[in-house]
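Cross-posted from the bioinformatics board.
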Amino acid sequence: MKKTIRDFDLNNKKVIIRCDFNVPIKEGKIIDDNRIKESLATINYALENGAKLILLSHLGRIKEETDKEKNSLAPVAIRLSELLNKEVKFSHVTHGEELENLVNNLQSGEVLLMENTRYEDVPGKKESGNDPELGAYWASLGEIFINDAFGTAHRAHASNVGIASHLPSGLGFLVEKEVNALEVLKDNNHPFVVILGGSKVQDKIGVIENLVTKADKIMIGGGMAYTFLKAKGINIGKSILDEENIDFCKKILEKYSDKIVLPVDNVVTEEYSNAVPYRTIPVDQINENEMGLDIGEETVKLFSETLENAKMVFWNGPLGVYEFSNFTKGTEKLLEKLVNINAITILGGGDIVAAASKLGYKDKVSHASTGGGVTLEFMEGKELPGVVSIQDK
Ligand code: ADP
Ligand code: MG
């Protein structure tokens, strides 16, 4: 068992919490603040218990100097302050005097957010490369370290794994909640049904190989389905194809023919656009100049029947291009079915959770994970460095 934030006396202590504030920002505006809201439980607990709070997070990727401005955490400081109804101090730098002064002047119950940890990636990839000196430096700013960033728990970076090796450490409530919710999937609740969508087979090979042995049925939709259909010898027109993985799909189909459920019809169009005509046809009738961007009604029916008796469902990846209103219906209809069956229902992955949130189903499933890649790695059975590095009880 890992220590959690509950195992520490936080009063008057400088507590560093690694949060996951990696939210989508466009033109300086936060588009979806779900991850900030999900971090409030831990932050509020620490404040109520008298901590001097130092919050760290990454945002986006920093490859060169010019990436810094658009990936600043400054908008997050503002939003967080609104949500906490409290001043959030902000350090514009990730090391040096300004940061150290702000830390040393913190009073019990006050909050400081440091600028994007990945500012340390240029130069030298110090954050993403888990530079030992950087981890030790950040740790020197505090007395207790809490990791509450589930979204990066599958990565060993200076701001999670690096710091953890220098301080008494524990998990925050969000990581605890995520891990417990996903652990449930390891229980033997059958029928266990998996829904997989999204665009590329390549991204999901590990999950498919792992889940196919545990699940009773795997329904495959979205762009991924076309590589499987191609592997069956079906002409898929201009639909998205993962050429290199046709053989992989063939093998999976042969070995697990009784488990894999593929679409029987789909919504096709001639351009990747929401502004051109579209039609629903059986999957084996796609013309050369057409591409499939959503599952059709017959497939929704077939997938719904497969869900009917499920006791546990894990869903990753939308079943169509949900960003376009013309191709959202398959995902929407199946979400509607999902929340009306008597089963443990778990959504994992950035896009399926975004789709569920947009369509109003996010709060109706058993668990919608804030993680993307981390959920998949967890499902593959891999250990999460961000969790492993935390002290045992
Ligand atoms: P998640 O974030 O849930 O893991 P992915 O990132 O794997 O999901 O996939 C999401 C993307 O897959 C979306 O951008 C969506 O538009 C795309 N997609 C879904 N169906 C299709 C399709 N038929 N053709 C092309 N892209 C698709
Ligand atoms: Mg995604």
